[in-house]
């Protein structure tokens, strides 16, 4: 069966798109499994802790954090609830917005992040970077830049 032949995509273009999706899923699944086995920490939780650690005063508004970790507002709320129960984050009210909340990295959260980071970085190296040469890494960065994917926080 020929799929969507009127879409203007060539077979090669569709293949590249699918390969990109599969690579992202494969790498993400590997990182998730490694973090769960070694640290009982899901990848989404690691990403939240990392974003908070990199933020000024180790805190971010919940809306900003949701955007940075690519979660819905409700999905982030549920995740923060779990991290708060585990003592890894806390919530603080925004002084300038009565409805706003900050997620704040606790000392326990920072320690858990420090323990898990070597596992995370090893996974990125083994599942992605080691398969590429220095020139290819620069090429991928340039290509992703064309797609308006920044290397930093949104």
Structure notes:
This protein has 154 residues and is mainly alpha-helical. It has helices at 11-39, 43-54, 62-68, 73-85, 107-127, 134-146, and strands spanning 59-61, 89-94, 97-105. A hairpin with a 2-residue loop joins strand 2 (89-94) and strand 3 (97-105). Helix 1 (11-39) packs across helix 5, helix 2 packs across helix 5 and helix 3 (62-68) crosses helix 4 (73-85). The radius of gyration is 19 Å and the shape is globular. The model has no long low-confidence stretch (mean pLDDT 90).
Please describe the topology of this protein.
Blueprint: H1 11-39, H2 43-54, E1 59-61, H3 62-68, H4 73-85, E2 89-94, E3 97-105, H5 107-127, H6 134-146
Antiparallel strand pairs: 1-3, 2-3
Average pLDDT score: 90
How many helices?
6
Strand order of the largest sheet: 1-3-2
How many strands?
3
The largest sheet, given as strand count, sense and whether it forms a barrel, is: 3 strands, antiparallel
The secondary-structure class comes to mainly alpha
Overall geometric form: globular
Instruction: Quote the distance from N terminus to C terminus.
Output: 40 Å
Uncertain segments: none
Residues in β-strands, percent: 5-15%
The radius of gyration is: 19 Å
Provide the succession of SSEs.
HHEHHEEHH
Helicity, as a percent range:
55-70%
């Amino acid at each position: 069966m020929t799929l969507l032949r009127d879409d203007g995509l060539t077979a090669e273009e569709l293949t590249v798109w699918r390969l990109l999706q599969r690579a992202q899923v494969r790498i993400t699944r590997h990182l998730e499994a490694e973090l769960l086995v070694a640290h009982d920490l899901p990848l989404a939780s690691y990403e939240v802790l990392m974003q908070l650690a990199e933020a000024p005063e180790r805190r971010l508004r919940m809306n900003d954090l949701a955007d940075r970790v690519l979660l819905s507002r409700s999905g982030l709320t549920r995740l923060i609830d779990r991290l708060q129960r585990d003592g890894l984050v806390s919530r603080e009210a925004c002084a300038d917005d009565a409805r706003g909340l900050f997620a704040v990295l606790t000392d326990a959260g920072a320690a858990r992040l420090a323990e898990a980071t070597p596992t995370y970085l090893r996974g990125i190296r083994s599942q992605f970077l080691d398969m590429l040469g220095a020139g290819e890494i620069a090429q991928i960065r340039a290509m992703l830049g064309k797609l308006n994917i920044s290397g930093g926080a949104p």
